[in-house]
Amino acid sequence: MKISIATFNTENLITAGKPIYDEPDPYYNRDQYQKKTDWIKNQLLKMNADIVGFQEIFEEQALRECIPDEMKGRHLFVANPTCKSPVNAILSKFPIIKIEVIEDLPFVFDFFDEKEIAAPLESTPVNIPLKKFSRGVLNAEIKINENISVSVIVLHLKSKRPILADGIDRNTATYPELAKGSARSLIRRAIESCGVRQILSDEINSDDKKPIFVLGDLNDNDTAVTNQAILGEEPFRKLPREEKLEKWKHVFQNCKDVQARKSIENFYYTYIHNGHYESLDNIFVSNHFAELNANKIGRIIDVRLYNDHVIDDKTSMDKKPAYVTDHGQVVANIDLFESALPVRNPISG
After folding, report:
1. In angstroms, how far is the first alpha carbon of the chain from the final one?
2. What is the rounded CA–CA span in Å between residue 214 and residue 227?
3. Contacts 24+ apart (CB under 8 A), 289-293
4. Residue 349: inside a domain, yes or no?
5. Model-level pTM greater than 0.85?
6. Quick one: which of 328, 235, 323 has its CA closest to 287?
7. H or E element at residue 185
8. For residue 22, what are the domain limits?
9. Is 126 contained in some domain?
10. Is residue 161 one of the residues assigned to a domain?
11. Number of domains the chain is built from
12. What's the CA dihedral at 253, 257, 261, 264 to 10 degrees?
């Protein structure tokens, strides 16, 4: 059985005549909005994915108007839309049997330094007062068939946009101010990634039979510390075998890496900023689909990118139309073995 799962940052999706954030003016006129909905419909038809996680949804009606007729009967959930700030959403060909939106970080993050570096000051933990995700984490349990239900977690972590003091913007800020603002964004994104890692570990500890897909706009390159925190590190090779097998349950696979190993050349990017080609949008799969897992229930067939519309404005005079999103879309095709049954201890061989 082949299933496909995708991530799609729609970039500021709201109906015509309405503002977003605290802006006073409408974001789209009627013509722009019609072009945007038509474009998203065409992208969804080309992608043809069974499950799609969306980011930057400001209004449920706007997303519903983007769904092609061929997909109208599918299950849709939008995470607490307010029309003022972006939220995540999910569209599924398969039934959604349980869903939650996690707004609160699952811990208080305490910062402390290495004693050798902090000396002569004491390395007393200091709580960083971040209590909520910048966008609520959407966690949906989806019933694929009679044997298997999966958790699909849709993310949109804090962007790289610098967090600056009131009265300062990116055009007026000095380079030191921009550096501090970028560090603030990184701190928030890093803490959010730790929160996601806690959610994933809790899910696995609660039911290690259930496969998990993590997808979305993570706003960092695939090798960044934030993404690696979510993926989990492979267990140290010198650990005893039983300890390694237990740790493997918590390690995720990045579909990008699987695709890269199969490809002669790697052209994976979903976003271009200032000439930098980045893979901000990713799909991670739990160890149930790892190639080396002796008890795997499926495998990644391939990963497809829809990024022809993403323009490098350092080398091109073309300008992105307002109705086209600034992110590429990612689709992972997965072969789910017909004989697969819930696995109690999915481990790598």
Report:
1. 23
2. 11
3. 289/211, 289/253, 289/334, 290/248, 290/251, 290/253, 290/348, 291/258, 292/348, 292/349, 293/248, 293/346, 293/347, 293/348, 293/349
4. no
5. yes
6. 235
7. helix 175-206
8. 2-336
9. yes
10. yes
11. 1
12. 160
CATH of the domain at 252: 3.60.10.10
- Cα(130)–Cα(200) distance, rounded to whole angstroms? 19
Judge whether 108 and 127 are in contact, CB under 8 Å.
yes
For residue 175 the two structure tokens come to 């380079």
In the block, tokens 């299933």 appear at 3
Q: Could you read off the pLDDT tens digit of each residue along the chain, which spans 349 residues?
A: 999 999 999 999 999 999 999 888 999 999 999 999 999 999 999 999 999 999 999 999 999 999 999 999 999 999 988 888 999 999 999 999 999 999 999 999 998 888 777 666 566 788 999 999 999 999 999 999 988 999 999 999 999 999 999 888 888 899 999 999 999 999 999 999 999 999 999 999 999 999 999 999 999 987 899 999 999 988 887 788 778 888 888 999 898 887 666 655 556 778 776 666 777 889 999 999 988 888 889 999 999 988 888 877 666 667 778 889 988 999 999 999 876 644 445 555 4
Q: How far is CA 260 from CA 4, 267, 280, 302, 303, in A?
A: 18, 9, 16, 10, 9
SS3 69: helix
Residue 291 lies in a domain: yes
